[in-house]
Amino acid sequence: MRLVLSGLVAAGLLSSQMAAAACISSSDREALDVAGLKTNLMIVTLTCKTDDQYNAFINKFKTELNGDERTEHTYFEHKYGRSGQKQQDEYMTQLANTKADASQHDGSRFCAHNEDIFSEVMALRNATELREYAAGRATAVPASYTSCENTSASTRSPAARHTTRRR
User: Fold this and answer.
1) Dihedral, CA atoms, 134, 135, 138, 140, nearest 10 degrees?
2) Residue in 95, 91, 88, 103 with CA at minimum distance from that of residue 46
3) Upper half-sphere CA count for residue 85 (Cβ side, 13 Å)
């Protein structure tokens, strides 16, 4: 019985460690969401010839975009080590290809479907609003990732969760 119980405990710890390894912090998720939005805007620009609007977006949020790009780079570097840059490049290429495929699928309706996006992003006042908007629109983060904050809470024992709530 002890051997079975030990095996179950070890399996639980292993699954917790695996879940934690696959999780993504909220700041990393936000940065990848913004990357998804920026990629979407780039595809809209290339397809619909909205260069001036794209440049206005980039100039308005230059500081925030640069910070998010550093966060993205750090995320891929920590997750993949020396191959981090390669993984980041592949991720961004896949993201752009996915957005471009959507534009191909929509055909002539693509620009009409996206005509309001620049007025929406230009109405955003700050980095917080940009990240919230991006989170609502972007599909940048793979669905297999979960928030580290959610993972750590869900992998603790019920007693530990109860203890934490008392504080």
Assistant:
1) 110
2) 103
3) 1
Q: Which of 26, 20, 24, 13 is nearest to 157 (CA)?
A: 13
What confidence category does residue 149 fall into, taking pLDDT thresholds of 50, 70 and 90? low
pLDDT tens per residue across span 92-106: 898 889 888 888 888
Q: Is 105 exposed, middle or buried (0-12, 13-18, 19+ CB in 10 A)?
A: exposed
Dihedral (CA of 60, 66, 71, 72) sign: positive
pTM here is 0.72
